[in-house]
Specification:
alpha/beta; 7-stranded parallel β-sheet; 13 helices; 40% helix; 19% strand
Length: 395
């Protein structure tokens, strides 16, 4: 079996997910889709954007992958179009781990061992594993050593309502729908964050599971103050509390707090996670498969297990292919904690997936079909395709 064609798609869907419930009109950078949200340090987009890839073989099997690319998806797409796609032509897709490492080594000596390069690799790697599982006639989870579970307890990431009181009311409704936990989007100043957490806790009661993401905005001193308030409210973790480069600060925070410190979305390789784990700088590991792929994601999950750390796979602004691949990995992860979920992304994804993904009262339903279960209707996808590359042998 050989790879004989690769297609890459820049996807832009006309849905603006203000997941913190903001209602102000953001000021976009001139001539772009991008802007800064108030209080948070990173840029956001006015549309939902990603990169999807389809890898075809000479035996008729194909696989779908996704690179997490909510900002400038053209960057990862270009790496696939001009470098990685041609590199994979003629290769056996069932050798997914070897091919992932071949792509990674091709540019790491030039300093490209994270960022857009690894995002591009990860989308292709997911597609290779999809083919590998289809060729075996098995759900992907079985190739990963599972399933340990076929339903995933999930938390809603961000309560999309404009005020603390409205978020508290919406949290009650979401718990009633069967979600296991709610993640509060904080990072607006310690006092404001504590007030929001108290409003939600008072409304949902003492037994409801709450988590908190603070978007890397705090100093160590402020994060300690906030963390001590949140742990007193029974919040289970504080996510991304300090700047993403500050390993030492996260380690001190983890030592000082009686709540979990969760980190991982900014990291893409086992080498990065190894340093954080060795320095006890995180309590819960959050690798993002659309930024590390199945091959490396599996290694990171195993590394976390070796350090006796649970895993809560990160899942940001992405669509159904990354979503369902993540579910397959989560279903096989021995240290699984809980799965991140964005309900609007599920609704968007089901517009172009041939078989809709499902959330039921007992959790996210892991597809038990050959592959990862995220097959894409090319006709439906075309409506949202901003750019497309077709890579194949010529002549």
């Amino acid at each position: 079996m050989k790879i004989d064609r690769i297609r890459a798609f820049v996807v832009k869907m006309p849905y603006h997910d203000r997941f913190g419930g903001q209602t102000n009109g953001p000021l976009m950078f001139p001539g772009s889709d991008y802007y800064f949200e108030d209080d948070w340090r990173e840029v956001y987009a006015g549309r939902t954007q990603t990169v999807l890839v389809r890898v075809d073989t000479d035996e008729g099997l194909y696989g779908w992958g996704e690179s997490q690319a909510p900002i400038v998806p053209e960057a990862a797409y270009s790496v696939i179009e001009h470098l990685l796609g041609p590199m994979l032509l003629g290769e056996d897709p069932r050798q997914a781990e070897r091919l992932r490492d071949k792509m990674y080594r091709s540019m790491n000596v030039r300093g490209h061992f994270t960022g857009f390069m690894v995002d591009a690799i990860s989308g292709l790697d997911i597609a290779l594993w999809d083919i590998k599982a289809k060729a075996a006639g098995e759900p992907l989870v079985r190739l990963l050593g599972g399933p340990l579970r076929d339903r995933l307890p999930a938390y809603v990431s961000g309560i999309r309502a404009p005020s603390a009181d409205a978020r508290a009311e919406l949290a009650v409704e979401l718990f009633a729908e069967g979600y296991s936990a709610m993640k509060l989007y904080l990072g607006h100043g310690v006092e404001a964050d504590v007030a929001q957490a108290k409003a939600v806790r008072n409304r949902v009661g003492p037994r409801a599971r709450l988590l908190a993401d603070v978007f890397w905005v705090y100093s160590l001193e402020s994060a300690l103050r906030l963390g001590r308030e949140l742990q007193g409210l029974g919040v289970e973790w504080i996510e991304s509390p300090l700047p993403p480069e500050d390993i030492a600060g996260h380690a001190e925070l983890a030592r000082e707090l009686d709540m979990n410190v969760a980190v991982g979305e900014a990291l893409r390789t086992r080498y990065q996670f190894a340093e954080w784990l060795d320095r006890d700088a995180l309590d819960i590991a959050q690798p993002d498969l659309a930024r590390c792929g199945i091959s490396e994601g599996r290694r990171i999950v195993d590394l976390a297990a070796a350090h006796h750390r649970p895993v809560a796979l990160h899942l940001g602004v992405c669509l159904g292919v990354a979503m369902v691949a993540t579910w397959q990995m989560a279903a096989a992860a021995p240290g699984f904690y809980i799965q991140e979920h964005h309900p609007p992304m599920l609704d968007l994804s089901n517009r172009f997936l041939t078989t809709p993904l499902r959330m039921e009262r007992d959790g996210l339903v892991v597809p038990m079909v050959p592959g990862h279960g995220g097959d894409v209707d090319l006709g439906a996808l075309s409506v949202y395709t901003a750019r497309q590359a077709d890579i194949a042998h010529r002549g």
